């Protein structure tokens, strides 16, 4: 029997479906992927060795504080390119890998020594990127960490090298930021988190690894030291002079003259090098691209079967994705030995990085 309530429900459902169907084409047009933009230079892959980011290891002393500076610098990203001007934590891209022990708190004093002019074009029509705000402003966020709100890198808790700060800077951005490290062993990453220009600041180079260690991980007898290399994957566009290329809007609405809906670089960078070659037997991977989805493959050298001899990053088919937050994973070569009683722990360890 068709009751009055069911009739009204069906009518509302039909009306909603009709409205959505009419809105979908407009939404698709507004959010369509921009035309693929290419770098102005052709670069040969696998000619540079994979660099390893410097490591800062916490000592575990009470009330330990580490100073990390954000600086502008130049770095060779490929053999055939002039040095590229970048921003980086402690003057390197990616920033130093910070290693801490689970259960041992660590504080970090994030210091800005960046210039007042930004490296990349800013769209001032975006919320949080108004022209009344300083062009260069930063706040660091430890992605995936268990922290208190005051230390989490609130997007409006930005500050500048000149002492300016955002509307919530005095409350949410104390210096230094405290990280309790109350998590099992895991791979995290830190990056800039400023409202309105996060994508630009990270694109300029402000990102790095943060590893938490514990006894469970050490008991797995996984490769370590020189045989464990963090891999930060990012896509980029470059000009002939080596400078970063960040395109302006291609097909977006006139209200946003610079912002692009999705960014796809045509060169995949690993640890600040364009498609480098590398050897390792354990790697933690962070995909720190803005939009690009990546498929990782390895080319094994038969002379060293237990090592990964080369890494090749293959860009996926360009398609819209709602997943903008980078993920971290861990993989081991097939021949890496693990005692049977430790296998399940190893799997749990790797799942925690997903």
Radius of gyration of CA atoms, rounded to a whole number: 23 Å
Helicity range of the residues?
10-25%
Low-confidence stretches: 12-33, 301-354
Helix tally equals 5
Which class best fits the helix and strand makeup? alpha/beta
Q: In sequence order, what are the helices and strands, one letter per element?
A: HEEEEEEHEEHEHEEEEEEEH
List how many beta strands DSSP finds.
16
Mean pLDDT: 76
Question: Percent of residues in beta strands?
Answer: 25-35%
Strand line-up of the largest beta sheet: 1-4-9-8-6
What spatial form do the alpha-carbon principal axes imply? Answer: globular
Distance linking N and C termini: 50 Å
Largest beta-sheet characterization: 5 strands, mixed
Give the key terms.
354 residues, alpha/beta, five-stranded mixed sheet, 5 helices, 16% helix, disordered C terminus
Written overview of the protein:
- This protein has 354 residues and is α/β, with parallel strands linked by helices.
- Helix content is 16%, strand content 25%.
- It contains five helices and 16 strands.
- Strand 2 (65-75) and strand 3 (84-89) form a beta hairpin.
- It is globular.
- The protein starts with a helix and ends with a helix.
Give the SSE map.
Layout: H1 4-30, E1 55-57, E2 65-75, E3 84-89, E4 97-101, E5 106-112, E6 140-143, H2 169-172, E7 177-179, E8 186-192, H3 198-203, E9 207-213, H4 215-219, E10 228-236, E11 267-270, E12 273-274, E13 282-287, E14 294-299, E15 310-315, E16 328-331, H5 340-352
Parallel strand pairs: 1-4, 2-5, 4-9, 10-13
Antiparallel strand pairs: 2-3, 5-7, 6-8, 8-9, 10-11, 11-12, 13-16, 14-15
């Amino acid at each position: 029997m068709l009751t009055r309530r069911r009739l009204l429900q069906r009518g509302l459902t039909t009306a909603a479906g009709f409205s959505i169907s009419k809105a979908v084409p407009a939404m698709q047009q507004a959010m369509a992927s921009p035309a693929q933009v290419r770098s102005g230079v052709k670069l040969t892959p696998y000619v540079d060795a994979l660099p390893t980011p410097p490591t800062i290891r916490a000592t575990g002393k009470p009330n330990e504080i580490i100073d990390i500076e954000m600086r502008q610098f130049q770095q060779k990203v490929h053999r055939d390119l002039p040095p590229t001007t970048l921003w980086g934590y402690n003057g390197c891209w990616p920033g130093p890998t910070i290693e801490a022990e689970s259960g041992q708190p660590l504080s970090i004093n994030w210091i800005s020594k960046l210039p007042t002019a930004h490296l990349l074009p800013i769209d001032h029509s975006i919320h949080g990127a108004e022209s009344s705000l300083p062009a260069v402003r930063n706040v660091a966020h430890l992605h995936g960490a268990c922290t208190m709100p005051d230390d989490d890198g609130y997007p409006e808790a930005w500050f500048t090298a000149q002492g300016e700060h955002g509307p919530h800077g005095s409350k949410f951005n104390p210096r230094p930021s405290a990280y309790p490290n109350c998590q099992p062993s895991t791979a995290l990453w830190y990056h800039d988190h400023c409202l309105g220009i996060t994508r630009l600041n990270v694109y300029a180079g402000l990102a790095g690894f943060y590893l938490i260690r514990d006894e469970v991980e050490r008991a797995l007898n996984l490769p370590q030291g020189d045989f464990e290399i963090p891999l930060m994957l990012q896509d980029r566009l470059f000009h002939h002079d080596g400078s970063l290329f960040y395109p302006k809007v291609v097909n977006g609405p006139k209200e946003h003259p610079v912002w692009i809906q999705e960014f796809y670089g045509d060169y995949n960078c690993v640890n600040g090098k364009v498609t480098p070659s590398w050897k390792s037997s354990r790697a933690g991977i962070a995909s720190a691209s803005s939009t690009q989805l990546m498929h990782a493959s390895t080319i094994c050298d038969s002379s060293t079967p237990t090592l990964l001899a080369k890494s090749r990053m293959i860009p996926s088919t360009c398609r819209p994705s709602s997943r903008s937050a980078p993920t971290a994973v861990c993989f081991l070569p097939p021949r890496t030995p693990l005692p049977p009683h430790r296998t399940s722990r190893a799997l749990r360890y790797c799942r925690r990085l997903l």
